[in-house]
Design goal:
two-stranded antiparallel ribbon; about 15% strand; 12 helices
């Protein structure tokens, strides 16, 4: 089901409105059905300064840290304690090899590019997630934190929402199947928080229930309530949170009253063959629903795919539960976007907050390792069929073309036509650039 995301019942949002207060707003049933209108994004955000190919981004986040040497950067000549349990297979690109469990991606390496040299210095899960999503180093220790962790600096998705706005009837920024840890809007305010689909689209009874109207509430009564609200607000200048809430309710009304929006969320309308191509898994069906959201006008879809923190006996989990579903989902998404003529306008990124240690530990697992990680880029104006950067013989550190967090963020903004040097004032009035430092990844953009 949909839910108001981020935090426990009494935690407060960055604009000072608690979850309990927002639930009360929803429970009044002014429109009925949609209990979280504050999550919807602005349609009138300013446009970027660059004419891009990409108009939207699907960002697949493998939360916990995907092991680079067990997926897209294998080291077949290394000792077993480095190499791990998997064999390598050739890909469509001569001289490029992947792990044996990346079969689907290996067949379409001409359609995407792997950056093997992403590296940073934060080995924590929540802190690394925060760093990757905001470009700012965390000021809190790693561990359990309320969601979102980024109560000051906006996330990548929130900046995209602010800069581009919605392109259709669905929200500009969506998270699924639950909130991204550092996916909040920070000082931009709740208007640019993600709309969270807090449900698993692979489940047979998947439904976006908050888009439905309250039983017994006719279309005529819904319209009368909207006219009542409009009359109450007429002649009253709304500012601050009052203006924001007015905007949220208007967008909520438009969303639940839109046949196109409701249809976009109905993944069961997809042919069975298409759904099976993606895999009837959480990550597979989230990728498919992400494609539907992009088609309906969403600008940034954040897919949080957990489970990659493989410290113990990692190889059975990787081989059976983690790598094949992610491999299938990514390959199916790229192929589907291409067949639908959407690959040029949709940027797809798949990464995690870190990689894994070069050496297998005593518990047959791999531990945290942020110094080397592989990232997959596809569509949206990138040059496909490449391997950018390289790591040493142990997949421990970049040996060429190192790529930083800021480089990744600047590249994504650039591909979407957003001026990443643009500045916004923080709560103290200090200018904060969309991206602090970094350069566009050399050779990635076509």
């Amino acid at each position: 089901m949909f839910n108001i995301p981020f935090g426990l019942p009494n935690r407060r949002y960055c604009d000072g409105v608690s979850r309990r207060q927002l639930l009360r707003f929803g429970s009044t049933g002014l429109f009925g059905g949609l209990t979280s209108p504050h999550l919807l994004q602005a349609d009138d955000a300013p446009q970027g300064t660059r004419k891009p190919k990409a108009t939207s981004c699907i960002f697949i986040f493998l939360e916990g840290g995907p092991p680079q040497q067990d997926m897209w950067d294998p080291k077949p000549d290394a000792p077993a304690e480095i190499r791990g349990a998997f064999q390598t297979i050739p890909t469509k690109t001569p001289g490029v090899f992947f792990s044996e469990h990346c079969k689907k991606c290996a067949q379409i390496t001409d359609k995407f590019t792997v950056v093997r040299s992403h590296s940073h210095s934060d080995n924590g899960h929540s802190t690394g997630y925060y760093y990757v999503m905001t470009g700012h180093k965390p000021t809190f220790p790693d561990g359990e934190h309320p969601i979102p962790t980024n109560t000051v600096f906006p996330s990548l998705g929130s900046f995209v929402s602010k800069e581009l706005g919605s392109n259709g009837k669905v929200p500009a920024y969506i998270n699924m199947p639950h909130p991204m840890s550092a996916g909040g809007s920070g000082f931009l305010g709740a208007e640019f928080s993600p709309f969270v689909i807090e449900a698993d689209p692979s489940e047979p009874d998947f439904e976006v229930k908050d888009l439905g109207r309250v039983e017994g509430l006719s279309e005529n009564r819904l319209e009368l309530r909207q006219r009542l609200l409009t009359g109450l607000e007429k002649g009253h200048r709304r500012t601050g949170r009052a203006a924001a809430m007015s905007s949220y309710y208007n967008k909520a009304y438009n969303l639940i009253n839109s046949h196109e929006a409701r249809e976009a969320f109905r993944i069961r309308l997809e042919p069975v063959k298409i759904r099976e191509n993606y895999g009837m898994t959480q990550i597979g069906q989230c990728a498919l629903l992400g494609r539907r959201m992009v088609e309906a006008g969403c600008r940034f879809v954040g897919i949080d795919a957990p489970g990659w923190d493989v410290h113990f006996n990692c190889f059975p989990s990787l081989a059976n539960d983690l790598i094949p579903p992610a491999d299938r989902a990514f390959a199916a998404l790229i192929t589907d976007l291409e067949e639908r003529g959407l690959i040029d306008t949709t940027l797809v990124v798949m990464m995690g907050e870190m990689g894994r240690t070069p050496r297998v530990n005593a518990q047959a697992g791999r531990d945290h390792w942020s110094m080397a990680q592989s990232i997959l880029f596809a569509g949206g104006g990138i040059k496909p069929g490449q391997i950018i950067g390289a790591t040493d013989a142990q997949a421990a550190a970049p040996t060429s073309d190192p790529v930083s967090v800021a480089d990744v963020l600047r590249t994504i903004h650039t591909l979407l036509g957003i001026d990443s040097t643009r500045e916004y004032p923080d709560p103290l009035g200090r200018p904060v650039p969309l991206v602090n430092g970094g350069t566009v990844i050399p050779g990635l953009i076509a």
